[in-house]
Amino acid sequence: MIVLPEKAIILVGFMGTGKSTVAERLAAELGWRKLDLDQAIEDDQGCSIPELFSSRGEAYFRQVETDVLKRTLEESREVVVATGGGAVLAEANREAMLASGTVVALTASVETILDRVQNDPNRPLLKGNAAESVPQLLEARKHAYDFAHLRIDTTNRSVDEIVRLILDGAGNSGTTA
Ligand code: S3P
User: Fold this and answer.
1) Which of 11, 59, 106, 116 is 20 to 30 A from 21, alpha carbon to alpha carbon?
2) pTM above 0.85?
């Protein structure tokens, strides 16, 4: 039986684990809205994430991320939220997510992540050298996504399969697939 959550579905996970792509398909499947937190931050600030990092710095970005996430979750019915990879770092953000719906952590192998992010200039934390920075950041964040209700490995899985696993698992806290 498929159990739908009452409120929001919030996707967390490292860069390149497929949050935006999965959120898009999951929202379409449910007939819900999709909200991309990075996009909402760009709209709020009127500039791109790399511009925000270089003009105001990471601490400012994190404050805006917390504010925009809080606002987003206040109107959080029937919405699939794709968060940025670092949105889980602040405890207040984790608490807000857990209180607002089902939190799903997407994971992927380091090789898969590198394949997906290697030549992407839009991720300031990778600073153009993903092969070095991805393994370091993954190590630093190895427990950062453990608070999620569900955990799904996206390596070698189709988007449809991942969506199905989320829908099947949405009522079963603590599931890993
Ligand atoms: C970040 C991930 C990015 C974006 C910003 C910081 C992070 O989002 O929010 O560059 O700290 O992991 P994606 O996970 O969508 O790349």
Assistant:
1) 59
2) yes
Q: Which atom of ligand 1 is nearest to the CA of 37?
A: 9
- Which residue owns the Cα nearest ligand 1 atom 15? 84
Is residue 85 within 6 Å of ligand 1 at its C-beta?
Answer: yes
Fold for domain 8-176? Rossmann fold (3.40.50)
State the amino acid at position 15 in one-letter form.
M
pLDDT at 126: 87
The per-residue pLDDT for 3 is 44
Q: Using a CB cutoff of 8 Å and minimum separation of 24, what contacts does 93-98 make?
A: 93/65, 93/66, 93/69, 94/147, 96/69, 96/70, 97/10, 97/12, 97/69, 97/73, 98/147, 98/149
Residue ranges per structural domain of the chain: 8-176
| Cβ–Cβ < 8 Å for 154, 22 | yes
pLDDT at 111 over 80: yes
